[in-house]
Amino acid sequence: MELSDMLPNELPEEGLGEDIAFDKVAEMVRDLSANLGAADALAHMDPPTPEIAAKLVGLNAAHNQNLLHPDLSPFATQAEKHVLDWLLPHFGMRVGHMCAGSTVANLAALWCAREHGARHVVASRDAHISVPKAASILGMSYEAIPVDSRGRLNQQHASNLSGAALVLTAGTTGRGVIDELGWIKEARTQGAKWVHVDAAWAGPLCLTRYAERLYGVEDADSVAVSAHKWLYQPKDSAIVMFSAPEAQEKISFGGAYLAVPNVGVQGSRGAAGIALLGTLLAWGRSGLASRIEESIALSEALADRLEHDPRATISQRPETGVLNWRPTDNARTDQVIEQLADTASRNLINGKPWVRHVATNPHANLEVIWSKIDKSLR
Fold this sequence. Notes:
Layout: H1 18-32, H2 51-63, H3 74-91, E1 95-99, H4 102-115, E2 120-124, H5 130-137, E3 141-145, E4 164-169, H6 184-189, E5 194-198, E6 222-226, E7 238-242, E8 252-253, E9 262-263, H7 272-307, E10 312-314, E11 322-327, H8 333-339, E12 345-349, E13 352-358, H9 366-376
Parallel strand pairs: 2-3, 2-4, 4-5, 5-6
Antiparallel strand pairs: 1-7, 6-7, 8-9, 10-11, 11-13, 12-13
Helix pairs in contact: 2-7, 3-7, 4-5
């Protein structure tokens, strides 16, 4: 059903009243939204929001705290600092702030890199679109380095690191692979002025038994993590972190109307830290880790089935819960993707389409998912 069939085509002259309008819009939200917690939802890097976070977001909206002004956010400012104090040590970082998504986090990090002397940005061809976008906004030239057969930045092709802001990705969007973070120290000897790790997807592995997969992240100058991925938060929630305590001073601005300097890209911003604080308080590190670890186990179990099925070929074993595969009859790939709506998405590897699954839904059921895949391959 189209929204135009359910709502007036023009702004109504008289309102329905808050209770009726709420019920009407709430019904549309429930009926027309994607169900990210469905048993077969395994297509995107978007988990369902836990109930505690959803409730706290509503409470935040009612209080409308603004972190631009500490006097308008007496609790929210402290809550954000507290949750950052919990998380920063797991990444080897010292300071940071929350912002509206990892696109803004990457922009803030590269802005800081420029203010510390970086002249251009170097990243892999499979880096997130926000990285070249940030370079463009900042007026910095951008170089995309080819990737190896597994999708990692090919270090042999990175010959222009002098004065560069090098961006390494921890969990690429397409294949979920982690660039070689152990290369950070060597990259500095090759002239890299700043090293940023875009850990939007795989960063929370630092809190799990898979933390060694991000070995070396502590050597970076900055790290970005998307809280609305594997930290299970609502949208518009990310963290940018810095290793040097004074790093953020370069991207902080004062004003006659400000009691404290405004840090980062955004001015007014909401209290995303409160929902994250509540979630981590409810789950603890072990509760968060178990959800992520179960998702990785599901992706590996699915890879096992596909790897042993003559009707399918996997691109590579999943490293961070992201799995790409295609039918043995490659010509059927787009047809299979269409049949697997909500269960899979489309990814291009070397210009060829692949079926992509992302294990971020803690309610996903392997048997339900396999039943749909099996049917699509018949």
